[in-house]
Specification:
This protein is of the alpha/beta class and 233 residues long. The protein is built from nine helices and eight strands. It has helices spanning 4-21, 40-48, 59-69, 89-95, 105-114, 144-152, 172-192, 207-212, 222-225, and strands at residues 30-34, 53-56, 77-80, 98-102, 122-127, 157-163, 198-200, 217-220. It has an eight-stranded parallel beta sheet. The structure holds pyridoxal-5'-phosphate (PLP).
Length: 233
């Protein structure tokens, strides 16, 4: 049986290989373990295997996990990577270290107001819709700089970069074009703001392509924790 520890090691070696193929350093690509729908026991197992950064998609689930685990495992870094409604921003502002999916000024404003002064600024990424599908979340490429300018002025937020979820089930050429467009946009943003150091892209199935296009943080769920079962309560 493969354990979470084994699968984490495999994910790290995939990242290392992908980095090497693009003449990048493996340590420049962080692994974010996406633990949504998975129990605390699996987070703890990954923690004991050395994993410190965990990503959660749902406000209530994340809140409950952080409240249970943050005392004993104080050095876990919690990343919110799901869609966020404006009436739920307080949980993210008060409990999480990172927020990857900012796509509206109003959400950023609320996070900035609700981030406690006693905590370090919340690290944020702007979610960009590189596939131009209307149904997808994220701002369009042409809206990124305007939103970035607003966030850069908010004292309790630190703008760290961009986050994207590329189209699934597209041909290789389309996938490559999307990643290249994202990378170009990221480079543009990095020239404008000194705080930019994070390109959050790449999941279990496309981490190699993402690392080849400059990803600095891959978000890996099923390759570490196994397939998710959404049917369970
Ligand atoms: C679920 C999720 C992931 C992880 O996806 P896997 O395919 O399981 O690796 C990454 N990013 C986001 C935003 C997700 O919702």
């Amino acid at each position: 049986m493969t354990t979470i520890t084994d699968r984490l090691a495999i994910a790290h070696s995939r990242i290392a290989q992908a980095a090497q193929n693009s003449s990048r350093r493996a340590e420049d690509v962080q692994l974010l373990a996406v633990s949504k729908t998975k129990p605390n026991s699996q987070i703890i197992e990954a923690y004991h295997a050395g994993q410190r950064c965990f990503g959660e998609n749902y406000v209530q689930e994340g809140e409950s996990k952080i409240n249970t685990l943050s005392q004993e495992f104080a050095d876990i870094e919690w990343h919110f990577i799901g869609p966020l409604q404006s009436n739920k921003t307080k949980v993210v502002a008060t409990l999480f270290d990172w927020m990857h999916t900012v796509e509206r000024e109003k959400i950023a404003q609320r996070l900035n107001e609700q981030r406690p002064e006693s905590m370090s600024p919340l690290n944020v990424c702007i979610q960009v819709n590189i596939s131009q599908e209307a149904s997808k979340s994220g701002v369009t490429a042409s809206q990124v700089l305007a939103l970035a300018d607003k966030i850069a002025l908010m004292p309790n937020l630190t703008l760290r970069g961009l986050m994207a979820i590329p189209s699934a089930d597209v041909d290789e050429q389309t996938a490559t074009e999307e990643m290249a467009a994202l990378q170009a946009l990221y480079n543009q943003l990095a020239q404008r703001f000194a705080s930019i150091d994070t390109l959050s892209v790449g999941m279990s199935n496309d981490l190699e392509l993402a690392v080849a296009h400059g990803s600095t943080m891959v978000r890996i769920g099923s390759a570490i924790f196994g397939e998710r079962d959404y049917s369970k309560p």
